[in-house]
Amino acid sequence: MLIARNERSKSMDGLFMAHLIAAVITAVVTAHCSAAFAADYAPPVTVLSDENIYTVNGDGTSIHDQTRSIHIENDEGVRSYGQVSYRYSNEFQKFDVLDAYTTTRDGARIDVSPNAIFTRQSPVSAYAPTFDDNLVKTIVFPGVEPGATVTMRTRETQVTPLFPGQFSANASFPNDKAIKSASVTINAPSSMKLHADVVDMPGGLVAADVDGEQTWSWSIKDARARPGEAYAPSIDDRSPRLAITTFPSYEALGQAYLARAQTQMAATPDIQALANEVTTGITDRRDQADAIYQWVSRNVRYVAVFLGFGGVVPHTAQDVLKARYGDCKDHTTLLQALLAAKGIKSSTVLVNADSRYWLPSAASPLAVFNHVITYIPEFDVYVDSTAGTARFGILPLNERGKRALLTGDGDEPSRLVTLPLTHADTDKVIVTTEIRLDSAGTARGTSTVENRGEYDWIARSIFAELRAGTEPLFAQVLLTGSGADGTGHYIHGDIRNLKDAFFFWTVFELPDYTPFPGPGAMRVPRGLGGINNISSAFDGLGSNRRRTPFLFKAGYFSEITKVNLPATMKVLSLPKPATVTSAFGTYTSSYALEGRTVTVTRTLDLTSGVPYLQPDECPALKKMVVSIKHDLAAQIVYQ
To answer: Taking the model in full, what pTM does it have?
Structure first.
């Protein structure tokens, strides 16, 4: 699999957490720059050709020959394609670079020297060598500059199929770059039944049976580049793509996965002893499952290997227990073995763990599935112990609302399911803020923030990623993003305590927040409230018409702010209360003055039955957002 430096080369965990923190810090920038970005978009490269030929054998083994020529358009293209890496499994695949060279803008050919093609153990393999044999082959191209073209011809040989006797192939051609020509050709035995789902790639069956071989072909011609947008599903969901497989259905795929994974979940004496120890004194079965889940989350280090790179058969639960680390398959195997030791049934669930939502009709194992989690039917709960900071029953946001494959427990068939969405009843942020405004116009305050459900996980995850000593800088960035200059810091509970809801507290100071003496007008100071709050609930929506879907999460937000005013300040008027209602939820606000204290109460109840909105739904949401932002900007008039 290609992992060119500008494509998907990060782990699922690191990628999503980097996105979370970047989203918090840069939301203001992305919201206002999307229109300019679209108008000025300059693709880093142009794909001159990308030819893919699969030669498939009857036993599911195959050879994938790929030839790519990439024209470098600018410095970003140099950074992205000056060197190109391919990741593969030494156990299942063989990978060869057959040819690689640079064509300068003057037309000269410069071959890549043999010592500029090197193979290294993947970072994950080095970190956990017992369980992963992944290798990365890197090509370093000479003379790469804008106007040059890099060409690479590679061969990936699948020496052992992921599933015995089964073949699958997947391809995606991201449309953030212009594509002059791209194609996928499949040559397979005519007796092999193939199932395909192809989007925006004309083609199909070329020959049904020529000397015992069938040929399929699909292509792309002269596709223009399309800029992306913030807070959208994966670019792969809106790009030309295909999935092809010999699996006749998702039920068959689920049963094939379970057939080899189930035997690895045996509850050995060590596992039985641990399950008994972890649940000592706990009689409620749900609480037992929770305690076991917490133990695995805390004590088994997650090694982020995409499903497929590390094979599809987990290690035995006993081996994972001994090693105390593993990938998603290993986490699930140990968790399910421990649950089984207490008589609690569970099932493995295959899911996508990045920002893909498309599920092809063809049941290709790795078209979108790259992660596994656990379902506990007795409590109708999905859990992901690899999340590390998610409480029992809380899935990471990037898994919510997706179609997933429940493999069953052997007594019931595999089937597709939809993972739960966020909901205002369970996913909440409740903020209480006390502010004292002095006669010089400086505001000093504290906030108490209670996080529940999805927002509990998000808050824990962000604090877990912040390096020691950087929280004041993080606070300053958030204050600046809210339009206030100031300083602050955070105090938070134990991030790894998954038994209790996560609280954090903030202390902040906003010098010269409002001028004194009056007359004047000031917005209600927001200070350092929740990381997820009413103001940030619509980050990334922008003010212009969207071209791509908008990721949208439901939830309930409550913000109560009490501002203690100096004796020298007289309030002339308070903002009027507001109520904003739409198909997406309800926002309310109220303002009250009692003595020297102004109390502001704001609530936002967002509802959604889908993980993202289509572009034509966004104008109605924007209308609601405009009304809410007007109220958030309302001012207290004083003298």
So the answer is: 0.90
